[in-house]
Amino acid sequence: MRTSELKEAKWWNPTDRGKILCTLCPRYCEIGEGQPGFCYIRQNIGGKLYSIGYGRPTGFAIDPIEKKPLNHFLPGTSILSFGTAGCNLGCKFCQNWSISKAKLDETYSVEASPEDVIALAKKYRTPSIAYTYNDPTIFGEYVIDISKLAREEGIKNVMVTAGYIDKEARKEIYQYIDAANVDLKGFTERFYFKNTF
C-alpha cells in the first residue's frame, strides 16, 4: 500500500533517537523505521506514524446491543459491530486472539470507508455502531471519522474497550461516543501485569 493511501496517525512525536514515540496509549511505544508498535496497527513509515488499519475492518456483524454488554442503552435494539486487526493489550484469555494479535496482512480484512460503515448501519437499520472485538483505541482516527458522521446521521456510537488510552487521545476519540463498556480484565495491578502483558 502506498503512503498516499494510508491515514497518518494522530498522537505521536519524533524522538531524538530517530524513532517515533506513539502517545495513543500508556505503552508509549518507541517505533523504529518500518516497524509497527505493540498493537501491530500503527507503523513508522518514512519517519511518520500511520494508522495502517484505517478503513480495514476484519468484518462486521449485527448483534443485539445487550451483547456489548449494555443493559440500559437502546435496549432491545440491534447494533452494527466491527473491529480491526491488532490490539494494545495482549490478554492471555482474549476471545478474539485471531484478530487482536494478528498483523493486518495475516488476517482477513475488507475495505470500508467511514461512509461505507454509515451506509451499512443505515442498510441494516441499526440505531448504533459498536467499535469492538479488538480494542478500538488503536484505530482511534477511524473511530473519530466514523463517529462524527454517525452523529450527523442520528446514529449512536458505542466503544467496547479496556480503557487503556492516553488522556489526550481519549478526549478526541470519545467526543462523539454515546456509550462505552470498559472491560475490566481483573481487579489487581498484579493480575494485569501477569495476564495482559
Number of helices, counting only DSSP H or I runs of 4 residues or more: 5
Helical coverage, percent range: 10-25%
Low-confidence stretches: none
Give the helix/strand class. alpha/beta
CATH topology of the largest domain: TIM Barrel
**Architecture of the largest domain in CATH?**
Alpha-Beta Barrel
From the spread of the alpha carbons, the general shape counts as globular
In spatial order, strands of the major sheet run 7-8-9-10-11
CATH superfamily of the largest domain: Aldolase class I
Q: Tell me the strand percentage band.
A: 15-25%
What's the order of the H and E elements?
EEEEEEEEHHEHEHEH
How many DSSP-defined strands? Answer: 11
Straight-line distance between termini: 30 Å
Into how many domains do the coordinates divide? 2
Q: State the name of the first-level CATH class of the largest domain.
A: Alpha Beta
**pLDDT averaged over residues:** 95
- What characterizes the major β-sheet? 5 strands, mixed
Question: How would you portray this structure in words?
Answer:
This protein is α/β, with parallel strands linked by helices. The chain has two domains: 3-51; 59-195, Aldolase class I (TIM Barrel, Alpha-Beta Barrel). Helices cover 21% and strands 22% of the residues. Helix 4 (167-173) links the parallel strand 10 (156-161) and strand 11 (179-182). Helix 2 packs across helix 3. The radius of gyration is 16 Å and the shape is globular. It starts with 6 loop residues before the first strand and ends with a helix.
